[in-house]
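tool=predict chain=A
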Amino acid sequence: MSDTVFAKIIRGEIPCHKVYEDEHVLSFLDVGPLSVGHTLVIPKEPAVTLDQLSDEASAAIGRVLPRICRAVMQATGAMAYNILQNNGSEAHQEVMHVHFHIIPKQEGKGLGITWKAGAIDHAEGAKLAEKMRSLIV
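tool=predict ok
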């Protein structure tokens, strides 16, 4: 296993405020929260980016992520939340281990996003979608 802070948390070398754990997934409170209840969900499998994660580990996260979201919302009283998952340093990933942030929105706190939408070229989009379909295994 790698030597990231998350690997150390998984191994029990660094303590955490655990929210959930099973054989594939660990969830705990973020130590640098954007809002109260900011929670991380990580696979125990070492993978840097989501595309490198096994189907089994991905499915395990998919099974528990909604349940953890419900718990975060009920515990914090927040009415909305963001799920954030970055892949690669160019996409603002800081810990090189797959992780999902559950970030409750509360009274001006939480994740802020600037979204600069572009426009799709439908002919190019059709070609790109076909290429992507052919690459899914």
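The first strand starts at residue 18 and ends at 21. The chain has one domain: 5-112.
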